[in-house]
Design goal:
single chain, 266 residues, mainly alpha, MetI-like fold, elongated
Amino acid sequence: MNRSILIGGAIVTALVGVAIFAPFLSPYDPYTIDLTSELEGPSPSHPLGQDKLGRDILSQIIYGARVSLLVAITVVGCSLALGTFIGALAGYWGGIIDSLIMRAVDVLLAFPGILLAIALTGILGPSLRNLILALSLLGWVGYARLVRGQVMAERSKEYVLAARSLGAGPFRVIFSHILPNVMAPVTVEATFGMAGVILAESSLSFLGLGPQDVPTWGRLLNEGSHFLLFAPHVATFPGLAIMLTVLGFNFLGDGLRERLNVKRWA
């Protein structure tokens, strides 16, 4: 099997396992405060040290994995569904429908995605629901462009013409015949999308625009940035968690791209 798939799959599987079994793997309650041990470094009782309120960093990272995975799965799922539907309509029908959809996509792509996400979450307010909503509203455009291009390449092929000649309607042709044949690059894009969403969620949480009532890697990184000179462990370990997770999804995406023989995507 492809080495990238093995490495990426192992990291992603470990992340999923940590998220699912967080209550059993966490050595402490991530919300327990111990002001007598604030900013203590790694020790046998607290392997990754404690933060400014004496909370166990390992426990917060473990519970933070739940937030990152929840956001990534929800945002990629919503973006993928919406982008696939819109892109398939644009690519199959073309004409004015395609022009209107792609102009909207071009407008959204003209701005840096993270700036739009900051603006949306700033307007909506810092919460997990608003963060997911903001990232989902912006994430569909890449999938729409990709699916549109794939559908346009497939719509004139013989199997599509045969389905039409047998009386299949447009939606049946799209969803039963074309989309199953264009999902390889979409799957690869979704894998890389998971890494992008986790990075975006961490960035927004770092800026204080993420959920405030649950531990997140970005918020831990933000808190630790104030103590880099005398308590570097507070920021180092959440940063490593983000790096390993993004690296895992990127490895998995690279492996799937080679395995599925996907040359390029939008």
